Amino acid sequence: MEQNFDALKKQLLMTRKNLAVGLSEGDVSKADGYCDGYKAFLDQAKTEREAVNYAENAARQAGFVPFAYGKQYAPNDKVYFVNRGKAIILAVIGEKPLTEGVRITAAHIDSPRIDLKPNPVYEDGELAYFKTHYYGGIKKYQWTVMPLALHGRIIKKDGSAVDVCIGEEESDPVFCITDLLPHLADEQMKRTLAQGIKGEELNVVIGSRPLGEAKAKEDELVKLHVLRLLNEKYGIVEADFLSAELTLVPAHKAKDVGLDRSLVGAYGHDDRVCAYPALTAILACDRPKHTAVTVLTDKEEIGSDGNTGLNSAYLKDFITALSDAAGVPSYVVLANSECLSADVNAALDPTWPDVSEPRNSSYVNYGVVVTKYTGARGKSGTSDASAEFMGKVRRLFDEHGIKWQIGELGKVDAGGGGTVAMFIASLNVDVVDVGVPVLSMHAPFELVSKLDVYMAHQAFHVFFQA
């Protein structure tokens, strides 16, 4: 009877297992090696422009060529398309006709950060500052008193472009947002945590030495000094900030975390921890049955709006261009297409368990997370994957040894969030979120498991090649 009971448990009950226990030493070594490349990507791609530049260079090295509208492509042709320098689509043409659909992975390459206002430079108390406007969902207090690097692009009055990166090299200066010392912070500490640092208090120190001797209080010679330094280095003037995209990001590098080096700590895991595996999977894709497409998109953290976000038409237009060249209606292609929306989920944090429901939470080291729906509370702002597509993904992963888990973004009434899945679903494509569980999501230093990152690459690769 006891033997039958054990067999029945094995047959009927669902079990989950830590990958660190189940994987071979060889697979663990592969994961660690894969994440060396991932860390290098994180350090080189802290903004969406830098991520696109990295992806384009990697694509060219892998034999991809720029996409040509109107050209009919043959199986295994490899093409890419860059949208305004801030989003990129890569595709490998499949052996099956487009009428059978394409296979898409979609990840975003923007992350929460501190943007400069259009007129950012000012002086106060003989210190020079940048005025800022934060981007995406952040806890503002986390961004004070830490080294920051300045990244971005300036378009000068003559139309020429200047790319800026200050704070990443060992010899570079960095920037910082100040905070009050505890001895004088009684009033500040009475604020709620959300208001501990207000948006207009995210002012970034950029200099303190005046240029020459002031004749009047209004001379702003510290401001003039930093503007002269910027002019000497980049040839810009203050008015050039009006046509610039400049952002402040953490200056630290991606690092191994833990005595066992099992975790990667870095800025920008959300969502570059899925963007990198989606990129490496398409670069490794060879002679797929269905046309394989990876899209690395912008603006997800602020709703995917704008012409480089997936709420715009550029992905649909790309599929339409492929379809038109093949003489196939694009609506037929899209209706038969499938997508893994490559985005992260919140790993259960034992320090903060109250916001999670353990049976439906994702865990570090348990593989990629399949998230049937995201949204907030009553599933608002989400795509809820069908049972049929969930079953298909489940079979695919199980048959190919992909270690995966189910996940939900916190307790029902705790809050929530969204991904790009609903924008792809609006094209009449079957879609479900598949990604990596993250600790301290949206913080300047997030944590992920190396095993989960590698498993994401394996999952996307299997999806393309199946």
UniProtKB/TrEMBL annotation:
Coiled coil: none annotated. GO terms for molecular function: aminopeptidase activity. Its EC number is 3.4.11.-. Its cofactor is Zn(2+). Keywords: Aminopeptidase, Hydrolase, Metal-binding, Metalloprotease, Protease, Zinc. It is an enzyme of class 3 (hydrolase). It comes from the Bacteria. Belongs to the peptidase M18 family. PANTHER family: ASPARTYL AMINOPEPTIDASE (PTHR28570), M18 FAMILY AMINOPEPTIDASE 1-RELATED (PTHR28570:SF2). This is M18 family aminopeptidase. It comes from Solibaculum intestinale.
